[in-house]
Amino acid sequence: MRSRKFLKAEQAPLVWDAPGLIAGVDEAGRGPLAGPVVAAAVILDDMRPIRGLADSKTLTALQRERLHDQILAKALCCSIAQATVEEIDTHNILQATMLAMRRAVEGLRLKPVKVLVDGNRLPTLDVLAEAIVKGDARVKAISAASILAKVHRDRLCEQLHVEFPHYGFAGHKGYGTPEHLEALQRHGACVHHRKSFSPVAAALLRTGGVLNMMLPAESDGQPAMGIGAIEVARSELRAAP
Questions:
Q1: In the chain, what are the domains?
Q2: Residue 41, beta-bridge partner list
Q3: How wide is the angle at C-alpha 176 spanned by C-alphas 171 and 178, nearest 5°?
């Protein structure tokens, strides 16, 4: 008969993960019709906890901004990267997202022993990685990454709004809202739109493959300088590394 001591040892849990730094990774901007897809990687500091971390989609813009600053100030290290519109159109949005995630991890100042990625797909990495469905709500480091990626991309969209005000990027952040679709119908697509996405492709078809090159909006009561257009020519897009 086995002793109680033997039974207790036999039931001891096994820990497979090596001790060390854990990075959380998430993205923002897979669904929009315009702008890059952004990814962030975050290694939190257990000695400097951040209260209120959650899935960025459940937070208000003000809460995200506040947490964004705390994450940058308190995390051990952070990295934000992106894949361009050209890379999205060349490789498709999934592969571009994986590329942005890989760049974010590779941009970390400290090398993690494991990377936890939101969702069910993993980018190609040289470290141990695990995909966690709804990880942005379950893992603090992923929550922090989702907040950084979301805030960074929202700020990019505000810059696009200054350059191309007719589309309303500051409001819809590039998503296919009725307002955005109406702007595409009226003005066609601009250089920041994802030509491989069907509403944009349809807009280009209507305009004969012409991209709008809009100048900044009216400022201080002065009219904008004008609107030009260029024909979309065949171009060789550099393959992502």
A1: 22-160 (3.30.420.10), 165-231 (no CATH)
A2: 25, 79
A3: 75
Tokens at 44, concatenated? 């939190």
Report helix, strand or coil for 199: helix
State the Cα–Cα distance between residues 39 and 25, nearest whole angstrom.
7
The torsion angles phi and psi of 192, rounded to 5 degrees, stand at -95, 0
C-alpha 4/C-alpha 30 separation (Å) is 55
Asked whether the beta carbons of 45 and 75 are under 8 A apart, the reply is yes
d(CA 214, CA 52): 40
* Two structure tokens written together for 87: 């890379």
Q: Using one digit for the tens of pLDDT, what is the confidence trace for 34-88?
A: 999 999 999 999 999 999 999 999 999 999 999 999 999 999 999 999 999 999 9
| Predicted confidence (pLDDT) per residue in 114-149, tens digit | 999 999 999 999 999 999 999 999 999 999 999 999
Element (H, E) at 42: strand 37-43
Beta bridge partners of 131: 117
| Percentage of the chain lying above the pLDDT 70 cut | 81
Distance CA 87, CA 194 (A): 10
Measured in whole angstroms, the distance separating CA 177 from the mean position of its chain's CA atoms is 19
Report the 10 Å Cβ neighbour count for 112: 24
DSSP 90-109: HH-HHHHHHHHHHHHHHT-S
Joined together, the tokens standing for residue 7 give 């039974």
State how far the Cα of 39 lies from the Cα of 98, in Å rounded to an integer. 9
